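COMPLEX REQUEST
Ligand: zinc ion
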Amino acid sequence: MRAAVVTSFTAPLEIQELPIPEPGPGEVLVRMETSGLCHTDIHAAHGDWPVRPTPPFVPGHEGVGHVERLGHGVTERSVGQRVAIAWLGYACGACRHCIAGWETLCEQQHNSGYSVNGSFAEYAVLPAAFATPVPDAVSSHDAAPLTCAGVTTFKAIKVGRVAPADKVAIFGVGGLGHLAVQYARIAGGIVIAVDVEDTKLAMARDLGADHLVNASRTDPVAAIQAFGGADVAVALAANASSVEQAYRSLGRGGRLVLVGLPADNAAVSVPIFDCVLGGKQVIGSIVGTRNDLADVFALHAAGRTKIVAVERKLDEVNEAIDEVLSGEVPARIVFRF
Ligand code: ZN
Ligand code: ZN
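STATUS: Structure written out below.
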């Protein structure tokens, strides 16, 4: 099978011919149809984060394809079924976090395209229970970005507890942000989209954002405070200054949800007096559970969300990474196999 392989953190990805993996007991073999390119894949390929993957490995955690073979003992999936391969490739199901419905916090978890090989390949194996079924009404083109960008922002809006008429500031309108705007709307929020690119703000407006702030021209903190301050701010742009702006845009009782991960393990400082007296909260949010992903697919099948994505071939993986890094891509790139 053809796969895009990270051989070193300083080299481009290599298209290699690898053996098709064998599904072990409880696993399924998936023949890939599409796979989205997430910024996390680029951080993985560059070894940017404190915990690094081990080359050689295959990135990719927005994979969508059909089950081709079942490993021993699999009963919960069938051959031909269409499934998604998400960041959460496995969780133990037995620890306190898993039992509490927080499998995304499981310390035994495997992460597709990071700690185990991912979806930038014609085939991948994963535990059957973590191959989330994709409804017929969701195309494979759309299912790919929903599998990370969708579930991650859906969860961020949930943990931010967005209620009807809450003012929700979305900092960063790219692959994740274009979906965050839509989930904030679905939850009833009045959405303020913040970005430095007018084209991305125009996309946010088309997707339902109520107010637009171009942070390259206008101070987003002043602009959002002029609306009365954000009840919820979602920090998707992965740099400390944008996160600090997101915090300072909060009104009293506001919640800051941190999602975007910077390349450099940056920290932000929280002014203690302001946080305590204002009853503010800072919440970290990592992807979403399998149930969250099923909900994301259900909303899309019901026509509540739209995907903005362009397709590329897997052979173009390095050019696609350059496109994302240059900011040319409006929202998402999806590889079509
Ligand atoms: Zn991702
Ligand atoms: Zn667990």
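REMARKS: Residues 91-92, 95, 97-98, 106, 108 surround zinc ion (ligand 2) (CB under 6 Å). The chain has a mean pLDDT of 97.
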